[in-house]
Amino acid sequence: MMEIRRITLREIRLPLKEPFRISSGVVAERRIALLELQEASGAITWSECVAGEFPNYSPETIDTAWLAITEWLGPRVVGRAFQSPGEVFAVLEHDVRGHLMAKAAIEMGAWGLEATMLGMPLSTLLGGTRREIEVGISLGIQPSPEALVRRVTEALAAGYRKVKIKIMPGADVDFVRAAREAAGPSAPLMADANNAYTLDDVPSLLALDELDLMMIEQPLAWDDLVRHATLQRQLRTPLCLDESITSLDRAQDMVALGAGRIVNIKPGRVGGLASSVAIHDFCQSNDVPVWCGGMLESGIGRAYNVALASLPNFVKPGDVSPSSRYWDRDIVAPEWTMTDRGTMVVPQGAGLGVEVDVDRVADLTVRETVLRAS
Ligand code: OSB
Ligand code: MG
After folding, report:
1. Which of 263, 198, 191, 194 is nearest to 230 (CA)?
2. Tell me, what DSSP letter sits at residue 269?
């Protein structure tokens, strides 16, 4: 039994070490919404909303999520009793369309609270089996192939088990080919286009198909499945879907249509952890590998991603990089680190397994509102 008594919603600003450029935009400073949830017993946990500042990844933004949480979603859960966190998503979903990142922020917090109250690692609560997860890095679009080669070489030397290269027309085949030539034929490289292509671009995509990539992520429109299926039939490289997979239904559609062969699971994008685990389980039964994506989360969101990535069908390295890849200083202790084996250790302490630096959060906070049971 759990009753969320209070949610404190805060916005913090956290500057990235360097701007992160994808095909649809660039971010230099994250505006991050954090939730501090308090249970009736007094237990506290934190969660993070992954929505960005602009709607260039999905229709949601931090400002739409703020509105959704304060006006529609928060009031539904605060003061309400739940038998288990698995019940929360249905309550948030009922007659509210979309706003999945806002829903996820609350739903994930309920799992964090449950783990905290049970004195159990979040990983264990979710059914995780791995003690360490494999770590990948996502490299933003670089100014030149030479600059990209430098970044890829450094990442492989640092031990990352997968290097994802952001691409767009004008920064694709030459860039990725240079990376492949420098890194060698067996280096674990992949590309992510964030919807920058259409079926008119098949020639470029066929050129990428020659470069032995682990996968090509979401080349076509953010909500497309049918054209991805047309494209997948022409490529030997597996397509991995990110933006298009917003629910278990969409994962089932992907398999039914042959729209992709790998799924990037981001709990924020699919409405939370129950949905993530359902997608994981479905993919596992259908021999579809999954891996955990990232949204440039702070150390709080990262705790949820690490726990999720400890489930058995997360068989490819995630975009779950150490704190120092993103920030001068994270907002949790200990910070997230990578072993010299290119792995991250799954915390075995209760709840999230990291402490939130509340003083630092207070320093970084630019707005705050409290939702209480009425
Ligand atoms: O497409 O996976 C993506 C970041 C913001 C928006 C979309 C994406 C990304 C990343 C970052 O690739 C991965 C990370 O958090 O390291
Ligand atoms: Mg992606």
Report:
1. 198
2. T
Q: Does domain 2-119+354-372 correspond to CATH entry 3.30.390.10?
A: yes
**Ligand 1 proximal residues by C-beta, below 6 Å:** 22, 57, 138, 192, 194, 242, 293-296, 319, 321
Distance of CA 341 to the CA centre of its chain: 22
Q: Do residues 299 and 325 make contact, with C-beta atoms less than 8 angstroms apart?
A: no
* Segment 21-79, tens digit of pLDDT: 999 999 999 999 999 999 999 999 999 999 999 999 999 999 999 999 999 999 999 99
CA–CA distance, 55 with 265 (Å, rounded to integer)? 19
Residue whose tokens read 């890849």: 325
* Residue bearing the CA closest to ligand 1, atom 12: 138
Domain extents for the chain?
2-119+354-372, 124-345
> Could you tell me the CATH superfamily of domain 124-345?
Enolase-like C-terminal domain (3.20.20.120)
Ligand 2 centroid from CA 242, angstroms: 5
Instruction: Kindly list the protein residues that place their beta carbon closer than 5 angstroms to ligand 2, a single-atom ion.
Output: 192, 217, 242
- Taking the whole predicted model, whether its pTM rises above 0.90 is answered as yes
Instruction: Output the six-digit token pair for 174.
Output: 């030459």
Tell me the CA distances in angstroms from 361 to 24, 31, 157, 196, 298, one per residue in order: 29, 12, 33, 35, 11
Active site residues: 166, 266
